Amino acid sequence: MKLTVLMDNNTLIDRYLLGEPGVSYFIEADDKKILFDTGYSDTFIRNAQKMNINLLDIDHIVLSHSHLDHTWGLDPLIRRYTEARIEGLDHSEPNLIAHPLIFNSRTYPGLQEIGMLLSAEKLSRIFKLRLSSEPLWITDNVVFLGEIPRRFDFEHDPLESKIIIDGKEQDDEVLDDTGLIVRTENGLVIVTGCSHSGICNIIEYAKEVCSEEKIIDIIGGFHLLNPPELKMRGTVEYFRNLNVHEVHACHCTDLESKIALSKVCNLKETGCGLQLTYK
What we know:
Layout lengths: L1 E6 L16 E6 L2 E5 L6 H8 L9 E3 L5 H4 L2 H14 L7 E4 L7 E2 L12 H4 L4 E4 L4 E2 L4 E3 L17 E4 L2 E4 L7 E6 L2 E6 L6 H12 L4 E7 L7 H12 L5 E5 L4 H8 L12 E3 L2
Parallel strand pairs: 3-4, 4-5, 5-7, 13-14, 14-15
Antiparallel strand pairs: 1-2, 1-16, 2-3, 6-10, 8-9, 9-12, 10-11, 12-13
């Protein structure tokens, strides 16, 4: 398995790629090519081109949740596929995998829309939709977790945004927030977007779904941005007992949270262009 960071808030020294507050990873596993999240703009496409990664040849697009910094890059990706058809270029017909709530409108105080801009009807003309709230095995070793059980009270954040369901506005628990898991010979690789559902909740569910306790790496946003003391303390204690080989906390994980985590686990730097290979 190989993972390439196409987009992150951070860029790495001497790698002349662009960063933005968003997430996009290119994953190669079981002879399949998977795009995990699309960031906010076309920057992930530009970075992929610099690294000679062909995004016209992907098998699956997996979305961690609907928020703008993870899905608004779909628009330029659709243009890329449309232009390929116009020019007669070879291209795949990827599956798009997400939670069924991915298309529901989201609002935030002062912002009319922070969720997916495209409808299921329009996207289904470009990609093959596979929506599931249950775990969905993409290959023998790659699983989309679906809806994450909320087990740890310390990870429950105040509900600030709203979601529109059946025409009615209600508090948004971000139930579509999920992760992608890859089984390797040495343990699980857990890939997250923002972990609104709780990074510890995601890890516990990954172990349950995969019937595996060994974890080789966790990469993605941990949703630790000036977290309450209870949440930070609970997360640090959880990681203290996790015995994970290494951790790549990034995107929505602030410096103080990274410092706290680095005291109890092998925390590694993450940024655009980083390539990780697992056996």
